[in-house]
Specification:
single chain; OB fold (Dihydrolipoamide Acetyltransferase, E2P); elongated; mainly beta; 49% strand; 5-stranded mixed β-barrel
Length: 142
Protein backbone atom coordinates (compact mmCIF):
# COMPACT_ATOMS: atom_id res chain seq x y z
CA UNK A 1 0.00 0.00 0.00
CA UNK A 2 1.37 3.41 -0.88
CA UNK A 3 0.53 6.85 0.48
CA UNK A 4 1.81 10.42 0.53
CA UNK A 5 4.88 10.99 2.65
CA UNK A 6 7.04 14.02 3.44
CA UNK A 7 10.52 13.96 4.95
CA UNK A 8 13.19 16.55 5.71
CA UNK A 9 16.79 15.72 6.34
CA UNK A 10 20.38 15.72 5.21
CA UNK A 11 21.55 13.84 2.13
CA UNK A 12 24.22 11.33 3.12
CA UNK A 13 24.68 9.51 -0.21
CA UNK A 14 23.80 10.12 -3.87
CA UNK A 15 23.70 7.43 -6.56
CA UNK A 16 22.23 8.14 -9.97
CA UNK A 17 18.73 9.51 -9.64
CA UNK A 18 18.35 8.29 -6.04
CA UNK A 19 19.71 9.65 -2.81
CA UNK A 20 19.71 8.61 0.82
CA UNK A 21 18.26 11.05 3.33
CA UNK A 22 18.74 11.04 7.09
CA UNK A 23 16.34 12.98 9.28
CA UNK A 24 14.30 12.80 12.47
CA UNK A 25 12.37 9.80 11.11
CA UNK A 26 15.53 7.85 10.30
CA UNK A 27 17.10 7.02 6.96
CA UNK A 28 15.09 6.78 3.77
CA UNK A 29 15.81 6.30 0.07
CA UNK A 30 14.39 8.97 -2.26
CA UNK A 31 13.88 8.32 -5.99
CA UNK A 32 13.71 11.31 -8.35
CA UNK A 33 13.57 9.22 -11.52
CA UNK A 34 16.00 9.87 -14.38
CA UNK A 35 14.01 12.85 -15.69
CA UNK A 36 13.56 14.35 -12.22
CA UNK A 37 17.29 14.28 -11.53
CA UNK A 38 18.17 15.98 -14.82
CA UNK A 39 19.74 19.37 -14.20
CA UNK A 40 20.00 18.92 -10.43
CA UNK A 41 23.23 18.68 -8.52
CA UNK A 42 22.72 17.10 -5.12
CA UNK A 43 25.63 16.38 -2.81
CA UNK A 44 26.01 14.73 0.57
CA UNK A 45 25.44 17.31 3.29
CA UNK A 46 22.63 19.15 1.44
CA UNK A 47 19.45 19.68 3.45
CA UNK A 48 16.27 18.93 1.49
CA UNK A 49 12.59 18.18 1.92
CA UNK A 50 10.97 15.52 -0.23
CA UNK A 51 7.29 14.83 -0.76
CA UNK A 52 5.94 11.90 -2.69
CA UNK A 53 4.47 8.45 -2.75
CA UNK A 54 5.77 6.11 -0.07
CA UNK A 55 6.67 2.68 -1.38
CA UNK A 56 8.00 -0.21 0.73
CA UNK A 57 11.64 0.65 0.00
CA UNK A 58 11.65 4.32 -1.00
CA UNK A 59 9.78 7.55 -1.63
CA UNK A 60 8.90 8.25 -5.27
CA UNK A 61 9.53 12.00 -5.08
CA UNK A 62 6.95 14.37 -6.61
CA UNK A 63 8.31 17.55 -5.03
CA UNK A 64 11.84 18.38 -3.88
CA UNK A 65 12.59 21.50 -1.83
CA UNK A 66 16.25 22.46 -1.61
CA UNK A 67 17.90 24.18 1.34
CA UNK A 68 17.71 27.56 -0.44
CA UNK A 69 13.92 27.23 -0.65
CA UNK A 70 13.75 26.49 -4.38
CA UNK A 71 11.12 23.90 -5.25
CA UNK A 72 11.46 21.34 -8.04
CA UNK A 73 8.40 19.44 -9.21
CA UNK A 74 9.15 15.94 -10.47
CA UNK A 75 6.81 14.83 -13.26
CA UNK A 76 6.40 11.09 -13.50
CA UNK A 77 5.24 9.34 -16.67
CA UNK A 78 1.64 8.20 -16.60
CA UNK A 79 1.11 4.52 -15.95
CA UNK A 80 0.32 2.54 -19.07
CA UNK A 81 -3.20 1.36 -19.63
CA UNK A 82 -3.57 -2.19 -18.46
CA UNK A 83 -3.49 -4.73 -21.23
CA UNK A 84 -6.58 -6.93 -21.38
CA UNK A 85 -5.79 -10.43 -20.21
CA UNK A 86 -7.56 -13.27 -21.99
CA UNK A 87 -6.62 -16.75 -20.74
CA UNK A 88 -8.32 -18.36 -23.75
CA UNK A 89 -6.09 -16.36 -26.09
CA UNK A 90 -3.03 -17.60 -24.17
CA UNK A 91 -4.21 -21.19 -24.66
CA UNK A 92 -4.67 -20.49 -28.37
CA UNK A 93 -1.12 -19.14 -28.67
CA UNK A 94 0.18 -22.34 -27.05
CA UNK A 95 -1.76 -24.52 -29.49
CA UNK A 96 -0.62 -22.55 -32.56
CA UNK A 97 3.00 -22.96 -31.38
CA UNK A 98 2.55 -26.75 -31.31
CA UNK A 99 2.01 -27.28 -27.59
CA UNK A 100 -0.90 -29.09 -25.92
CA UNK A 101 -2.08 -27.09 -22.89
CA UNK A 102 -2.29 -29.38 -19.85
CA UNK A 103 -3.81 -27.02 -17.30
CA UNK A 104 -5.26 -23.59 -16.69
CA UNK A 105 -3.22 -20.47 -17.48
CA UNK A 106 -1.94 -18.63 -14.39
CA UNK A 107 -2.08 -14.83 -14.65
CA UNK A 108 1.11 -12.93 -13.86
CA UNK A 109 1.57 -9.14 -14.07
CA UNK A 110 2.92 -9.19 -17.64
CA UNK A 111 2.15 -12.67 -18.95
CA UNK A 112 0.34 -15.96 -18.48
CA UNK A 113 2.13 -19.14 -17.43
CA UNK A 114 0.58 -22.02 -19.32
CA UNK A 115 1.39 -25.64 -18.42
CA UNK A 116 1.75 -27.59 -21.66
CA UNK A 117 3.33 -30.63 -23.29
CA UNK A 118 5.01 -31.26 -26.62
CA UNK A 119 6.61 -34.48 -27.84
CA UNK A 120 6.04 -36.06 -24.42
CA UNK A 121 7.93 -33.34 -22.53
CA UNK A 122 6.30 -30.95 -20.06
CA UNK A 123 6.82 -27.19 -20.33
CA UNK A 124 5.74 -23.97 -18.69
CA UNK A 125 5.00 -21.45 -21.42
CA UNK A 126 5.21 -17.71 -20.86
CA UNK A 127 2.63 -16.03 -23.10
CA UNK A 128 2.61 -12.21 -23.06
CA UNK A 129 -0.66 -10.38 -22.60
CA UNK A 130 -0.48 -9.18 -26.21
CA UNK A 131 -0.37 -12.78 -27.45
CA UNK A 132 3.28 -13.71 -28.03
CA UNK A 133 5.04 -16.83 -26.81
CA UNK A 134 7.98 -15.32 -24.91
CA UNK A 135 9.60 -18.54 -23.71
CA UNK A 136 9.06 -22.22 -23.05
CA UNK A 137 10.75 -23.56 -19.93
CA UNK A 138 11.08 -27.28 -19.28
CA UNK A 139 8.76 -28.03 -16.35
CA UNK A 140 10.41 -28.80 -13.05
CA UNK A 141 9.65 -32.08 -11.34
CA UNK A 142 7.32 -31.56 -8.37
Amino acid sequence: MSHHHEATGTIWAVFGHRFALEGPGGRILADLGPEGAAGLTLTPGDTVTVAGERKPTEIKVHRLTLGDGSVHTVARPAKAESTPADPQAALGVARVAGYAPSGEPKRKPKHFEVPATRDGAAFTLHVTLDGHLRKAEPARAA
